[in-house]
Structure formats: C-alpha cells, structure tokens
Design goal:
The chain is about 40% helix and about 25% strand. The chain has about 210 residues and is of the alpha/beta class. Strands 3-2-1-4-5-7-6 form a seven-stranded mixed beta sheet, sandwiched between helices. Helix 6 packs antiparallel against helix 7. Bound molecules: S-adenosylmethionine.
C-alpha cells in the first residue's frame, strides 16, 4: 500500500495538514535529538522527519519497509543512511541509538507493543523516544474531524493518481489508541518520563519518553 501512495504522499501531507506538518516534525526532532546523537527515524517513509532529525544535529538512519517511499527519501539527503527493513525486527544491535523518532508510523505497525519494544531495544538506556502521530481530538473539534477524515480525505485520495489507498486513513486513525492509551503502551514497553503534547487543537500528538 505504501509503495502505491509514495508518489502522492508528500503533496497529500501538505494539503491534509495545511502545511503544518513541517512544523510538527521540527518540534518532534527538537524535543528528542541533541547535537551529535545517533538517531533512528523508524517508518521514515519519504524521509521528512529523518531530515528534521538531521537538522537538529543528529547523525541519522532512516528505516522503512517500502522501497518506493525510500526512493523518495534518498533524494532528500545523501548523508542520511536509508535502510529497508521491518520496524518489528530492527536490523540493529541493542543500544545502538541515542534517540529514536517515528512520524505518523506507529499507527501503521501491525503489532504496536512489539514495535515499541523494538524501539526500546535499539535505544541506549537514557535514550529518548519521540512519537508523532494523529490522535482523536475531544470536544468541539471532534465532529469536524470526523467529516474531514471519514469523508474528505478518502475523496481527495481518490482524486489523485495512486491515492485510492488513502481510504485506509480513517480506519487506521479510528483503531489507534487515544493519547493517554498510547502513553500507557509506551510506558509498558520500558520507557520512563512519558509525556505527550497536542498540536492543532488535539488532532496530532507528540509523545516523548526516556528508555529506562
Ligand atoms: C504514514 S507513513 C509515515 C512516513 C513518515 N514517517 C512521515 O513522517 O511522513 C508510514 C510509513 O510506515 C511504514 N511502515 C509501516 N509499518 C512498517 C514496518 N513494520 N516496518 C517498516 N516500515 C513500516 C510504511 O511503509 C510508511 O512509509
């Protein structure tokens, strides 16, 4: 599916977030990456968060299982190491990284507790995790959000070449844990100091934690 949407992924991101996704990625990178860190961006897709991690001072490895997404990522930075691999069985020894980021990726990982445990495994003790993803807002924005994700996003996807896979997005958001539930799952995977902040009126959450 991600191979199929690779071509439209970046323009869809810009349109769906009204151009705000760049700012969220920068804030995620700045929250967890320190200058000189070895950083993994898991589920890196077309590489925008990996590039933000590099700008924040990291030496970055981006990993994704979709070759087509990685093709796009490779064009954005020659100094990032781009690796094709599975986030559920990361091809790195224990304690390889100082920081790990995941942008709009954990929602798609089929076994979330196992995926989070893998992220913990490849972090050094004290290493930092940043998880940026869509979440379900409460209160006044909720009905607008339902119309946006359940009706407009699939319609927009169908209008773009290769974008029909965007019909997956509403379902993937609906089955994803709420921000407090995701914080609990991150804690259960072996992270301390777990916290989250919400962006865009609660539509996007940035979870952070420290490897115990
Ligand atoms: C919605 S995209 C996010 C891309 C990018 N991180 C961003 O911020 O735009 C989700 C990505 O997760 C990747 N993905 C999903 N499950 C994966 C897994 N188990 N291992 C590696 N990549 C995975 C997909 O191939 C896809 O590129």
């Amino acid at each position: 599916m991600f191979d199929a949407i690779a071509r439209v992924y970046d323009p869809m991101n810009r349109v769906l977030t009204a151009g705000l996704d760049g700012r969220w990625r920068r804030r995620a990178a700045e929250a967890v990456v320190r200058s000189g860190d070895r950083v993994l961006d898991a589920c890196c897709g077309t590489g925008d968060l990996a590039v933000a991690d590099e700008r924040a001072g990291g030496t970055v490895t981006g990993l994704d299982f979709s070759e087509r997404m990685l093709e796009r990522a490779r064009r954005k930075s020659a100094s990032i190491e781009w690796v094709q691999g599975d986030a559920l069985a990361l091809p790195f020894p224990d304690g390889s990284f100082d920081a790990v980021t995941v942008g709009f990726g954990v929602r798609n990982v089929v076994d979330l507790p196992r995926g989070l445990a893998e992220l913990r495994r490849v972090l050094k003790p004290g290493g930092r995790l940043g998880v940026l993803d869509i979440t379900t807002p409460r209160g006044i924005l909720r009905p607008f959000y339902r119309v946006w994700f359940d009706r407009l996003v699939p319609l927009l996807g169908k209008a773009l070449p290769g974008g029909s896979a965007y019909t997956y997005l509403p379902a993937s958001v609906r089955r994803f844990p709420s921000a407090p539930e995701l914080a609990d799952l991150i804690r259960a995977a072996g992270f301390d100091q777990v916290d989250y902040r919400l962006f865009a009126g609660g539509i996007v959450a940035l979870h952070t934690g420290m490897a115990a």
